[in-house]
Amino acid sequence: MSTAIKVENLSKAYQLGDFGTGTISRDLERYWARMRGKEDPFLKIGETNDRTTKGESDVVWSLRDINFDIEQGDAVGIIGRNGAGKSTLLKILSRVTSPTTGSVKVKGRIASLLEVGTGFHPELTGKENIYLNGAILGMRKAEIKRKFDEIVDFSGVERYIDTPVKRYSSGMYVRLAFAVAAHLESEILIVDEVLAVGDAEFQKKCLGKMGDVSRGEGKTVLFVSHNLGAVQKLCNKGILLNNGQVTFNGSCKDAVYNYSQNGVKTDANFLDRITYSSDNLKITNILFNNSSINDIVLNSENNFSFEIKVELSLKTDMPLDIECRFLDRDLNRVAFFSPGHHDGVTVQNKGEISLSYKITFPHNLNKINMDMNLYFTHPDVEIYASCENALSIEYTGYGMASGHVFEYEKGVGMIFLPTDKSQ
Amino acid sequence: MLENEDWDIEITAQNNILDLKLKDVWHYRDLLLLLVRRDFVSFYKQTILGPIWFFIQPAITILFYTLVFGNLAGIPVDGLPKPLFYLAGTIVWNYFAECLTKTSTVFRDNAALLGKVYFPRLIMPLSIVLSNLIRFGVQFLLFMILYVFYLFKGTVIVPNAFLLLLPVLIIMIAALGLGLGMIISAVTTKYRDLAFIVSFGVPLLMYTTTVIFPLSVAEARYPAYSWLVKFNPITAIIETFRYGFLGRGSFSWELIGYSFITTIIILLIGTIIFNRVEKTFVDTV
């Protein structure tokens, strides 16, 4: 495996605010500093890009000292919150803008699909636009001609191919645009959120095509999306960006997990993570096994069980129950705990109350990592409050006589069916 | 170890100011032609008269010039048929003005496209110059039709060998428009003030060159200020064009030489500035 993309000390600064009469004097100052071979005075005071707080300086670093390598043939998902620097990174990689400092070295041709349909001219027909768009993306005319039928076929808009694209529905527009881009011959493909549009069938087709591109044809793919499911389906590597810095670089699964955990791993600040709460109830404490941890191991020693204790204060008498939803690392739901559904709901009296539950898992599951979301509900009627990722659980797995343990994440399913000894 | 690997693309903050990446441009030559085709085709889409509009515009302009400047104001035209005289100046001036104004807004007009995908930025201004060359060609055809019409009518028109300079003249107009346009486009990405000057300045600039009057008239009536007209490098081009095809007007090697050198300097400056700006204009446009 050789390196396809090498990013070294890459930084990009942006100037915030409006450009007006005030900016020209500053431009001259910067120019003067550069002429004398000094460092740009305005970059020195740049800050990390945290959009939520008001900063001192109006120069921000959208990317700061990014370093990573991408191997040839990898499909890399780039994830991060809005403003983390994903798009800036892709813009630099696709040479739309250039970095402030640092460098990127690339082996092979890059095709970037930052937004499908770029360069489509509304007055031109689908056919004319295939040629134009293909050429914009770097294809030669002969190459497009060779692939023309394939492109039309993939897009599924054959009937409209001689109609100006301004008459197309937005779905058809995207289909055609993606079809052109998907048939590019390049070693590296950069894709930014193209799957936001188009119907489910076409999205599936696109994902399939991109999967073929990375796995079958050995191309390197960089994929930015907020659709974590798509990222996980498509990518084997992941890079997590936060405020312009790489906070995680490794397998895609771990990157997505890190991202969905939002960096909170060990401190048990449940109360900060209560994402929604009705006025009638206030959660004062959540305890697991009588302590404020948010990380437990389930094994045969604790009989695969744990205790939840919640303390609340209620303003009125109300029917109250808890629900626990257990998710795997791909955010699929794997288990559900709801005493109210099982036994019926009890009405709790107003004032301070404390509820405890014991949850026991079956002993014959394969090794699995789960996260638990905790909800306070009136079952089937209302959700009073919720706490996402309240607990992270490591289930050690069914130990067979041979000592082997299967892992859920390696695709053996969730339940291990032991041999029935009663026969 | 990594130093020894050869990379196909290196993306860094600096680039060579004179490196036009012509190899890249050559690779994208199909795009250039398709963009020209796009401009040409989308110009007359959904019109009834179609490409005839390319003729109508200059024809009506000439009609008005003849009525206003020729007949009403009575500005002499070196004894040539007025429509022919004006048309010769207009097509040359239009080519220059179109190249200049379109190129000067190229970053802004195409920000959406240029901000999404990479191709050599030079393609965009080059496509402007080329598609306007086609319009020039069509208008030149109109000029030739009128030319032949007057020949048959018996008007004395004496073309001479200088009309062979036509290709050089065309390249000079294109280079001037392109160079000036690139300078302005680079400056206006961040500060748009210059764009205002262009939008009202270019039509006014036409009066400082010999579109509606011959150089001889300017020299005769305002001897002290005729240098202003000669200062405009387009003047020499128009005068040479008229002299070659119509046999009247003034031609001097000094004037066309001055125009030629100015063109080269402007093109060079334009290229350097354009190269500096093209990498990051996306952030400031």
Automatic annotation (TrEMBL), chain A:
<dbReference type="GO" id="GO:0005524">
    <property type="term" value="F:ATP binding"/>
</dbReference>
<dbReference type="InterPro" id="IPR027417">
    <property type="entry name" value="P-loop_NTPase"/>
</dbReference>
<dbReference type="InterPro" id="IPR003439">
    <property type="entry name" value="ABC_transporter-like_ATP-bd"/>
</dbReference>
<feature type="domain" description="ABC transporter">
    <location>
        <begin position="43"/>
        <end position="268"/>
    </location>
</feature>
<dbReference type="InterPro" id="IPR003593">
    <property type="entry name" value="AAA+_ATPase"/>
</dbReference>
<dbReference type="InterPro" id="IPR050683">
    <property type="entry name" value="Bact_Polysacc_Export_ATP-bd"/>
</dbReference>
<protein>
    <submittedName>
        <fullName>Lipopolysaccharide transport system ATP-binding protein</fullName>
    </submittedName>
</protein>
<keyword id="KW-0067">ATP-binding</keyword>
<keyword id="KW-0547">Nucleotide-binding</keyword>
<dbReference type="InterPro" id="IPR015860">
    <property type="entry name" value="ABC_transpr_TagH-like"/>
</dbReference>
<comment type="similarity">
    <text>Belongs to the ABC transporter superfamily.</text>
</comment>
<dbReference type="Pfam" id="PF00005">
    <property type="entry name" value="ABC_tran"/>
</dbReference>
<keyword id="KW-0813">Transport</keyword>
Automatic annotation (TrEMBL), chain B:
<feature type="domain" description="ABC transmembrane type-2">
    <location>
        <begin position="49"/>
        <end position="277"/>
    </location>
</feature>
<protein>
    <recommendedName>
        <fullName>Transport permease protein</fullName>
    </recommendedName>
</protein>
<keyword id="KW-0997">Cell inner membrane</keyword>
<dbReference type="InterPro" id="IPR013525">
    <property type="entry name" value="ABC2_TM"/>
</dbReference>
<feature type="transmembrane region" description="Helical">
    <location>
        <begin position="194"/>
        <end position="217"/>
    </location>
</feature>
<comment type="similarity">
    <text>Belongs to the ABC-2 integral membrane protein family.</text>
</comment>
<dbReference type="GO" id="GO:0005886">
    <property type="term" value="C:plasma membrane"/>
</dbReference>
<feature type="transmembrane region" description="Helical">
    <location>
        <begin position="255"/>
        <end position="274"/>
    </location>
</feature>
<keyword id="KW-0812">Transmembrane</keyword>
<feature type="transmembrane region" description="Helical">
    <location>
        <begin position="84"/>
        <end position="101"/>
    </location>
</feature>
<feature type="transmembrane region" description="Helical">
    <location>
        <begin position="52"/>
        <end position="72"/>
    </location>
</feature>
<dbReference type="GO" id="GO:0015920">
    <property type="term" value="P:lipopolysaccharide transport"/>
</dbReference>
<keyword id="KW-1003">Cell membrane</keyword>
<feature type="transmembrane region" description="Helical">
    <location>
        <begin position="162"/>
        <end position="187"/>
    </location>
</feature>
<keyword id="KW-0813">Transport</keyword>
<dbReference type="InterPro" id="IPR047817">
    <property type="entry name" value="ABC2_TM_bact-type"/>
</dbReference>
<keyword id="KW-0472">Membrane</keyword>
<keyword id="KW-1133">Transmembrane helix</keyword>
<dbReference type="GO" id="GO:0140359">
    <property type="term" value="F:ABC-type transporter activity"/>
</dbReference>
<dbReference type="Pfam" id="PF01061">
    <property type="entry name" value="ABC2_membrane"/>
</dbReference>
<feature type="transmembrane region" description="Helical">
    <location>
        <begin position="122"/>
        <end position="150"/>
    </location>
</feature>
